[in-house]
Amino acid sequence: MTRDDSEQLIVQEVAPRDGLQIEAKWVETQDKIALIDGLSACGFTRIEAGSFVSPKAIPALRDGEAVFQGIARAPGVIYVALVPNVKGAQRALAACADELNLVMSASETHNRANMRMSCESSLAGFAEIIRITNESRGVKLNATVATAFGCPFEGRIDEERVVSIARTYREMGVEGVTLADTTGMANPRQVERLVSRVLEHVPAASLTLHFHDTRGLGLANVLAAYGAGARRFDAALGGLGGCPFAPGASGNICTEDVVNMCDEMGIPTGIDLQRLIALSRTLPALVGHEVPGQVAKAGRNCDLHPVPDYVRTI
Ligand code: COA
Ligand code: ZN
Predict the structure, then answer these.
(1) How many Å is the Cα radius of gyration of the chain?
(2) Is the CB of 84 under 6 A from ligand 1?
(3) Which of 151, 243, 254, 262 is catalytic?
(4) pTM for this entry
(5) Which pLDDT tens digit goes with each residue over 41-93?
(6) Domain parsing of the chain, residue ranges
(7) Are 260 and 267 in contact (CB under 8 A)?
(8) Helix, strand or coil for residue 81?
(9) Which of 27, 29, 81, 131 is placed for a possible disulfide with 97 were both Cys, Cβ 3.0 to 4.6 Å?
(10) CA nearest 97: which of 138, 128, 37?
(11) Helix 273-280 and helix 255-265, axial crossing angle in degrees, nearest 10
(12) Rounded to whole angstroms, what are the CA distances from 34 to 181, 216, 222, 254, 267?
Protein backbone atom coordinates (compact mmCIF):
# COMPACT_ATOMS: atom_id res chain seq x y z
CA MET A 1 0.00 0.00 0.00
CA THR A 2 1.42 3.40 -0.94
CA ARG A 3 1.27 6.31 1.44
CA ASP A 4 -1.49 7.86 -0.67
CA ASP A 5 -3.61 4.69 -0.59
CA SER A 6 -3.50 4.51 3.16
CA GLU A 7 -4.36 8.20 3.55
CA GLN A 8 -7.18 8.23 1.01
CA LEU A 9 -10.62 8.95 2.39
CA ILE A 10 -13.22 7.09 0.35
CA VAL A 11 -16.61 8.74 0.12
CA GLN A 12 -19.62 6.62 -0.73
CA GLU A 13 -22.28 8.95 -2.09
CA VAL A 14 -25.71 8.20 -0.62
CA ALA A 15 -27.88 11.10 -1.83
CA PRO A 16 -29.82 8.94 -4.32
CA ARG A 17 -30.87 6.68 -1.41
CA ASP A 18 -30.63 8.28 2.05
CA GLY A 19 -30.91 11.74 0.49
CA LEU A 20 -34.08 11.20 -1.52
CA GLN A 21 -35.89 8.72 0.77
CA ILE A 22 -37.15 11.49 3.06
CA GLU A 23 -38.11 14.04 0.38
CA ALA A 24 -41.80 14.87 0.13
CA LYS A 25 -41.61 15.97 -3.51
CA TRP A 26 -41.55 13.15 -6.05
CA VAL A 27 -38.29 13.14 -8.00
CA GLU A 28 -38.80 11.75 -11.50
CA THR A 29 -36.98 8.53 -12.39
CA GLN A 30 -35.06 10.27 -15.20
CA ASP A 31 -33.90 12.96 -12.75
CA LYS A 32 -32.69 10.31 -10.29
CA ILE A 33 -30.79 8.64 -13.12
CA ALA A 34 -29.25 11.98 -14.18
CA LEU A 35 -28.20 12.64 -10.57
CA ILE A 36 -26.49 9.25 -10.26
CA ASP A 37 -24.75 9.62 -13.64
CA GLY A 38 -23.67 13.13 -12.62
CA LEU A 39 -22.20 11.69 -9.41
CA SER A 40 -20.25 8.97 -11.20
CA ALA A 41 -18.72 11.71 -13.40
CA CYS A 42 -17.40 13.39 -10.21
CA GLY A 43 -15.11 10.45 -9.43
CA PHE A 44 -17.01 8.39 -6.85
CA THR A 45 -16.18 4.70 -6.75
CA ARG A 46 -19.20 3.83 -4.62
CA ILE A 47 -22.75 5.19 -4.99
CA GLU A 48 -25.79 3.98 -3.04
CA ALA A 49 -28.20 4.32 -5.91
CA GLY A 50 -31.48 3.33 -4.26
CA SER A 51 -33.29 0.95 -1.99
CA PHE A 52 -35.59 -2.01 -2.53
CA VAL A 53 -37.86 -1.58 0.44
CA SER A 54 -41.64 -1.57 0.74
CA PRO A 55 -43.07 1.16 -1.52
CA LYS A 56 -45.55 1.87 1.27
CA ALA A 57 -42.67 2.53 3.71
CA ILE A 58 -40.64 4.72 1.31
CA PRO A 59 -42.78 5.88 -1.64
CA ALA A 60 -40.01 8.24 -2.82
CA LEU A 61 -37.83 5.30 -3.91
CA ARG A 62 -40.49 3.03 -5.34
CA ASP A 63 -38.88 3.18 -8.81
CA GLY A 64 -35.69 1.33 -7.81
CA GLU A 65 -35.81 -1.12 -10.71
CA ALA A 66 -36.19 1.61 -13.33
CA VAL A 67 -33.38 3.64 -11.75
CA PHE A 68 -30.94 0.73 -11.74
CA GLN A 69 -31.90 -0.11 -15.31
CA GLY A 70 -31.48 3.46 -16.54
CA ILE A 71 -28.13 4.45 -15.06
CA ALA A 72 -24.98 4.37 -17.19
CA ARG A 73 -22.75 1.91 -15.33
CA ALA A 74 -19.46 3.76 -15.11
CA PRO A 75 -16.48 1.40 -15.05
CA GLY A 76 -15.03 0.98 -11.57
CA VAL A 77 -18.13 2.29 -9.79
CA ILE A 78 -19.92 0.01 -7.33
CA TYR A 79 -23.67 0.69 -7.34
CA VAL A 80 -25.11 -0.27 -3.97
CA ALA A 81 -28.74 -1.04 -3.09
CA LEU A 82 -30.16 -0.94 0.42
CA VAL A 83 -32.36 -3.93 1.24
CA PRO A 84 -34.41 -4.69 4.35
CA ASN A 85 -35.55 -8.28 3.73
CA VAL A 86 -35.40 -11.27 1.37
CA LYS A 87 -37.92 -9.72 -1.03
CA GLY A 88 -35.75 -6.61 -1.27
CA ALA A 89 -32.66 -8.74 -1.91
CA GLN A 90 -34.40 -10.63 -4.71
CA ARG A 91 -35.40 -7.31 -6.32
CA ALA A 92 -31.89 -5.87 -5.93
CA LEU A 93 -30.25 -8.95 -7.43
CA ALA A 94 -32.70 -8.92 -10.35
CA ALA A 95 -31.82 -5.23 -10.88
CA CYS A 96 -28.09 -6.16 -11.00
CA ALA A 97 -26.99 -4.15 -7.98
CA ASP A 98 -23.24 -4.63 -7.42
CA GLU A 99 -23.59 -4.64 -3.65
CA LEU A 100 -26.43 -5.19 -1.19
CA ASN A 101 -26.52 -3.10 1.98
CA LEU A 102 -28.52 -4.87 4.70
CA VAL A 103 -29.77 -2.77 7.61
CA MET A 104 -30.57 -3.57 11.19
CA SER A 105 -30.56 -1.19 14.14
CA ALA A 106 -28.58 -1.76 17.34
CA SER A 107 -31.71 -0.42 19.04
CA GLU A 108 -34.47 -3.03 19.17
CA THR A 109 -37.06 -0.24 19.29
CA HIS A 110 -35.74 1.58 16.23
CA ASN A 111 -35.50 -1.68 14.30
CA ARG A 112 -39.17 -2.32 15.01
CA ALA A 113 -40.06 1.27 13.99
CA ASN A 114 -37.98 1.19 10.81
CA MET A 115 -38.16 -2.44 9.69
CA ARG A 116 -41.32 -3.54 11.53
CA MET A 117 -39.54 -6.57 12.91
CA SER A 118 -37.33 -7.66 15.80
CA CYS A 119 -33.56 -7.72 15.47
CA GLU A 120 -33.77 -11.50 15.65
CA SER A 121 -36.07 -11.57 12.60
CA SER A 122 -33.76 -9.18 10.75
CA LEU A 123 -30.78 -11.47 11.35
CA ALA A 124 -32.75 -14.55 10.31
CA GLY A 125 -33.61 -12.75 7.05
CA PHE A 126 -29.96 -11.77 6.55
CA ALA A 127 -28.90 -15.44 6.70
CA GLU A 128 -31.23 -16.19 3.78
CA ILE A 129 -30.14 -13.05 1.91
CA ILE A 130 -26.49 -14.04 2.29
CA ARG A 131 -27.29 -17.50 0.92
CA ILE A 132 -29.07 -16.21 -2.20
CA THR A 133 -26.52 -13.45 -2.77
CA ASN A 134 -23.64 -15.91 -2.68
CA GLU A 135 -25.34 -17.76 -5.54
CA SER A 136 -25.06 -14.55 -7.61
CA ARG A 137 -21.32 -14.64 -8.11
CA GLY A 138 -19.49 -11.38 -7.59
CA VAL A 139 -22.27 -9.53 -5.75
CA LYS A 140 -20.86 -7.96 -2.60
CA LEU A 141 -22.49 -7.63 0.80
CA ASN A 142 -22.42 -4.86 3.37
CA ALA A 143 -24.46 -4.67 6.56
CA THR A 144 -25.28 -1.55 8.52
CA VAL A 145 -25.64 -1.19 12.28
CA ALA A 146 -28.16 1.67 12.43
CA THR A 147 -28.49 3.81 15.60
CA ALA A 148 -24.95 2.61 16.50
CA PHE A 149 -24.19 5.81 18.44
CA GLY A 150 -27.59 6.51 19.99
CA CYS A 151 -31.29 5.93 19.42
CA PRO A 152 -34.07 8.56 19.38
CA PHE A 153 -36.28 6.16 21.38
CA GLU A 154 -33.83 4.30 23.66
CA GLY A 155 -31.09 6.91 24.04
CA ARG A 156 -27.68 5.47 24.82
CA ILE A 157 -26.63 2.34 22.97
CA ASP A 158 -24.27 -0.13 24.64
CA GLU A 159 -20.94 -0.12 22.74
CA GLU A 160 -20.50 -3.81 23.46
CA ARG A 161 -23.72 -4.51 21.58
CA VAL A 162 -22.50 -2.59 18.51
CA VAL A 163 -19.17 -4.43 18.50
CA SER A 164 -21.01 -7.72 18.90
CA ILE A 165 -23.36 -6.99 15.94
CA ALA A 166 -20.37 -6.01 13.77
CA ARG A 167 -18.69 -9.31 14.67
CA THR A 168 -21.90 -11.24 13.97
CA TYR A 169 -22.16 -9.68 10.50
CA ARG A 170 -18.58 -10.71 9.71
CA GLU A 171 -19.10 -14.23 11.11
CA MET A 172 -22.21 -14.57 8.93
CA GLY A 173 -20.03 -13.87 5.87
CA VAL A 174 -20.76 -10.18 5.26
CA GLU A 175 -17.62 -8.38 4.10
CA GLY A 176 -18.54 -4.74 4.70
CA VAL A 177 -19.82 -3.22 7.94
CA THR A 178 -21.29 0.27 8.35
CA LEU A 179 -21.73 2.02 11.68
CA ALA A 180 -24.57 4.51 11.25
CA ASP A 181 -25.35 7.49 13.45
CA THR A 182 -28.95 7.63 12.27
CA THR A 183 -29.97 10.82 14.09
CA GLY A 184 -26.63 12.54 14.69
CA MET A 185 -26.15 11.61 18.36
CA ALA A 186 -22.46 10.69 18.10
CA ASN A 187 -19.65 12.80 19.53
CA PRO A 188 -15.98 12.68 18.49
CA ARG A 189 -14.66 10.92 21.62
CA GLN A 190 -17.35 8.24 21.38
CA VAL A 191 -16.58 7.83 17.68
CA GLU A 192 -12.85 7.43 18.30
CA ARG A 193 -13.49 4.80 20.98
CA LEU A 194 -16.05 2.75 19.05
CA VAL A 195 -14.15 2.89 15.75
CA SER A 196 -10.96 1.70 17.48
CA ARG A 197 -12.84 -1.21 19.01
CA VAL A 198 -14.64 -2.23 15.82
CA LEU A 199 -11.37 -2.04 13.83
CA GLU A 200 -10.12 -4.92 15.99
CA HIS A 201 -12.69 -7.09 14.19
CA VAL A 202 -13.31 -5.37 10.82
CA PRO A 203 -10.46 -4.26 8.52
CA ALA A 204 -10.40 -0.54 7.71
CA ALA A 205 -10.97 -1.31 4.02
CA SER A 206 -14.33 -2.90 4.96
CA LEU A 207 -15.57 -0.44 7.57
CA THR A 208 -17.79 2.54 6.67
CA LEU A 209 -18.92 5.37 8.95
CA HIS A 210 -22.31 6.93 8.25
CA PHE A 211 -22.86 10.23 10.03
CA HIS A 212 -25.79 12.62 10.07
CA ASP A 213 -25.18 16.26 10.91
CA THR A 214 -28.33 16.56 13.02
CA ARG A 215 -26.48 18.17 15.92
CA GLY A 216 -23.71 19.85 13.97
CA LEU A 217 -21.02 17.30 14.84
CA GLY A 218 -20.78 15.60 11.45
CA LEU A 219 -17.35 16.78 10.26
CA ALA A 220 -15.86 16.59 13.76
CA ASN A 221 -16.98 12.95 13.87
CA VAL A 222 -15.43 12.29 10.44
CA LEU A 223 -12.07 13.56 11.65
CA ALA A 224 -12.30 11.57 14.88
CA ALA A 225 -13.08 8.38 12.93
CA TYR A 226 -10.33 9.10 10.39
CA GLY A 227 -7.85 9.67 13.20
CA ALA A 228 -8.85 6.30 14.70
CA GLY A 229 -8.12 4.60 11.36
CA ALA A 230 -11.45 4.61 9.49
CA ARG A 231 -11.17 5.39 5.79
CA ARG A 232 -14.66 4.94 4.30
CA PHE A 233 -17.48 7.41 4.85
CA ASP A 234 -21.02 7.83 3.59
CA ALA A 235 -22.06 11.38 2.68
CA ALA A 236 -24.91 12.93 0.70
CA LEU A 237 -24.70 15.66 -1.91
CA GLY A 238 -26.02 18.91 -0.48
CA GLY A 239 -26.39 17.32 2.96
CA LEU A 240 -29.74 15.76 2.02
CA GLY A 241 -31.04 12.77 3.90
CA GLY A 242 -32.64 11.24 6.93
CA CYS A 243 -34.59 8.22 8.11
CA PRO A 244 -38.36 8.82 8.02
CA PHE A 245 -38.82 6.35 10.91
CA ALA A 246 -36.46 8.16 13.31
CA PRO A 247 -38.05 11.22 14.93
CA GLY A 248 -35.93 14.34 14.49
CA ALA A 249 -33.83 12.87 11.69
CA SER A 250 -32.06 15.31 9.39
CA GLY A 251 -29.44 15.31 6.67
CA ASN A 252 -26.35 13.22 6.15
CA ILE A 253 -22.98 14.90 6.32
CA CYS A 254 -22.68 16.92 3.14
CA THR A 255 -20.41 15.39 0.50
CA GLU A 256 -18.99 18.61 -0.90
CA ASP A 257 -18.32 19.90 2.62
CA VAL A 258 -16.39 16.68 3.40
CA VAL A 259 -14.46 16.81 0.12
CA ASN A 260 -13.65 20.49 0.63
CA MET A 261 -12.32 19.75 4.12
CA CYS A 262 -10.19 16.91 2.77
CA ASP A 263 -8.88 19.02 -0.13
CA GLU A 264 -7.87 21.80 2.24
CA MET A 265 -6.23 19.32 4.64
CA GLY A 266 -4.37 17.47 1.87
CA ILE A 267 -6.32 14.22 2.36
CA PRO A 268 -6.89 12.61 -1.07
CA THR A 269 -10.48 11.65 -2.05
CA GLY A 270 -10.28 11.31 -5.84
CA ILE A 271 -13.38 13.49 -6.18
CA ASP A 272 -13.63 16.58 -8.38
CA LEU A 273 -14.93 19.27 -5.99
CA GLN A 274 -15.75 21.80 -8.69
CA ARG A 275 -18.01 19.34 -10.54
CA LEU A 276 -19.52 18.23 -7.26
CA ILE A 277 -20.44 21.79 -6.32
CA ALA A 278 -21.99 22.37 -9.75
CA LEU A 279 -24.09 19.22 -9.30
CA SER A 280 -25.08 20.20 -5.76
CA ARG A 281 -26.34 23.54 -7.03
CA THR A 282 -28.94 21.66 -9.12
CA LEU A 283 -30.48 20.11 -5.98
CA PRO A 284 -32.81 22.91 -4.79
CA ALA A 285 -34.68 22.77 -8.11
CA LEU A 286 -34.79 18.98 -7.90
CA VAL A 287 -36.15 18.67 -4.35
CA GLY A 288 -37.99 21.99 -4.17
CA HIS A 289 -36.16 23.55 -1.20
CA GLU A 290 -32.80 24.89 -0.07
CA VAL A 291 -30.30 22.23 1.01
CA PRO A 292 -28.08 22.37 4.12
CA GLY A 293 -24.62 22.03 2.51
CA GLN A 294 -22.37 25.04 3.05
CA VAL A 295 -19.57 24.83 0.48
CA ALA A 296 -21.97 24.89 -2.50
CA LYS A 297 -23.21 28.24 -1.17
CA ALA A 298 -19.82 29.70 -0.16
CA GLY A 299 -17.69 28.25 -2.99
CA ARG A 300 -14.20 26.77 -2.60
CA ASN A 301 -11.46 28.68 -0.76
CA CYS A 302 -9.76 29.21 -4.12
CA ASP A 303 -12.89 30.74 -5.73
CA LEU A 304 -11.73 34.28 -5.08
CA HIS A 305 -13.93 37.33 -5.49
CA PRO A 306 -13.15 40.44 -7.59
CA VAL A 307 -11.67 43.24 -5.53
CA PRO A 308 -14.27 46.07 -5.23
CA ASP A 309 -13.34 49.36 -6.94
CA TYR A 310 -13.34 51.34 -3.68
CA VAL A 311 -10.56 49.14 -2.33
CA ARG A 312 -8.33 50.06 -5.30
CA THR A 313 -8.60 53.73 -4.43
CA ILE A 314 -7.47 53.33 -0.80
N1 COA B 1 -40.03 -4.52 -1.64
C2 COA B 1 -41.30 -4.34 -2.07
N3 COA B 1 -42.40 -4.72 -1.40
C4 COA B 1 -42.19 -5.32 -0.21
C5 COA B 1 -40.91 -5.54 0.29
C6 COA B 1 -39.79 -5.11 -0.46
N7 COA B 1 -38.54 -5.28 -0.04
N8 COA B 1 -41.00 -6.16 1.47
C9 COA B 1 -42.32 -6.33 1.71
N10 COA B 1 -43.04 -5.83 0.69
C11 COA B 1 -44.50 -5.80 0.54
C12 COA B 1 -45.11 -7.17 0.68
O13 COA B 1 -45.09 -7.84 -0.54
C14 COA B 1 -46.51 -6.82 1.15
O15 COA B 1 -47.25 -6.35 0.05
P16 COA B 1 -48.86 -6.50 -0.01
O17 COA B 1 -49.39 -5.65 1.10
O18 COA B 1 -49.19 -5.95 -1.36
O19 COA B 1 -49.12 -7.96 0.16
C20 COA B 1 -46.27 -5.63 2.06
O21 COA B 1 -45.04 -5.03 1.61
C22 COA B 1 -46.15 -6.01 3.51
O23 COA B 1 -45.16 -7.02 3.65
P24 COA B 1 -44.51 -7.37 5.07
O25 COA B 1 -43.46 -8.40 4.87
O26 COA B 1 -45.62 -7.68 6.05
O27 COA B 1 -43.78 -6.01 5.42
P28 COA B 1 -44.02 -5.03 6.64
O29 COA B 1 -45.22 -4.21 6.43
O30 COA B 1 -43.88 -5.78 7.91
O31 COA B 1 -42.74 -4.06 6.47
C32 COA B 1 -40.50 -3.85 5.60
C33 COA B 1 -41.42 -4.60 6.55
C34 COA B 1 -39.08 -4.21 5.98
C35 COA B 1 -40.81 -4.32 4.18
C36 COA B 1 -40.75 -2.31 5.71
O37 COA B 1 -40.80 -1.93 7.05
C38 COA B 1 -39.68 -1.54 5.02
O39 COA B 1 -39.59 -1.57 3.79
N40 COA B 1 -38.82 -0.82 5.77
C41 COA B 1 -37.73 -0.06 5.21
C42 COA B 1 -37.74 1.33 5.77
C43 COA B 1 -36.58 2.13 5.22
O44 COA B 1 -36.23 2.05 4.07
N45 COA B 1 -36.00 2.97 6.10
C46 COA B 1 -34.92 3.85 5.73
C47 COA B 1 -33.65 3.18 5.38
S48 COA B 1 -32.79 2.51 6.74
ZN1 ZN C 1 -28.68 7.67 7.18
Answers:
(1) 19
(2) yes
(3) 243
(4) 0.97
(5) 999 999 999 999 999 999 999 999 999 999 999 999 999 999 999 999 999 99
(6) 10-312
(7) no
(8) strand
(9) 81
(10) 138
(11) 160
(12) 28, 30, 28, 19, 28
